[in-house]
Amino acid sequence: MRTPPQITNWRDLTNWAIWPWRELLLPAACPLCLTATEPSAGITAEYCDACREELISVEPRCRRCGNHLSPGHSLADERCDLCRDMRLRWEGVIALGDHAGLLQQAIIAAKSAKGATVAAATAQLLATKVAETDWLKNVDLVIPTPIYWLRRIRRGFNPAERLGSEIAKRLNVKFCPHALKITRMMRKQSDLRITARRANVRGGFRVRTPHLLPGATVLLVDDVMTSGATAAEITSKMLKSGAARVIVAVAARAPRGETGN
Fold first, then answer.
1. Residues 88-119: pLDDT tens digits?
2. What is the three-class DSSP state of 140?
3. Residue 87 maps to a domain
4. 34, 159, 213, 235: which has the fewest C-beta neighbours closer than 10 Å?
5. pLDDT for 121-132, tens place per residue?
6. C-alpha distances out from residue 147 to 17, 122, 138, 245, Å
7. CATH number (domain holding residue 114)
8. How far is the C-alpha of 179 from the C-alpha of 91, rounded, in Å?
9. Contacts of 132 by beta carbon, 8 Å cutoff, 6+ apart
């Protein structure tokens, strides 16, 4: 039997209330293609084998920035050609794949009002990848990238929170959805050139729970990473508050040249 959804907003409360009837009347199915599935014990939702295979990238990625490794580079290399000369504060990036194809469709679906099951299934894949990452040990906190309060009111939820809550539950670590706060309205990153994105987010985040960070290994969760400006700004704030390590976990890493965070 599937696990009832966690309650983080009023929509989740509604889903929780109708959960027994849904379990009785509707069999478990892949949230993307609706193929019948049998979720593992304790799992809210899972993709079918075919969708799972298409969603997870098997191409080697740079441990530090999450981009594809060019031919000739080894997984043992600390950095790739794209990030070798960059000043990166985070320790590494874990991503399921590129922001394209079925994974892009899943991320878009997860942002919809009815996308909780898609987000839960995507989070299961990402949590598995995090757990299987050999260089990442002993995560202490899972912290989602926040969104501005007006955007949250309009949407009703934070997509990164949906991912983060499932990952924290799967990894059995503390989930801190309110650890970060956006201090001001910022322009949409996708509307800006890469050189302007860092300035756009500079000073735009504040750590609300600094007492939790000293010595902690933090998993910063978001749905998509492109330029990395948002993750870099947040990482800087958390390290200044005493975090020992910050690792970024995203559902998708946008190919070079795509706009976004």
1. 999 999 999 999 999 999 999 998 877 888 99
2. coil
3. yes
4. 34
5. 999 999 999 988
6. 27, 20, 27, 23
7. 3.40.50.2020
8. 20
9. none
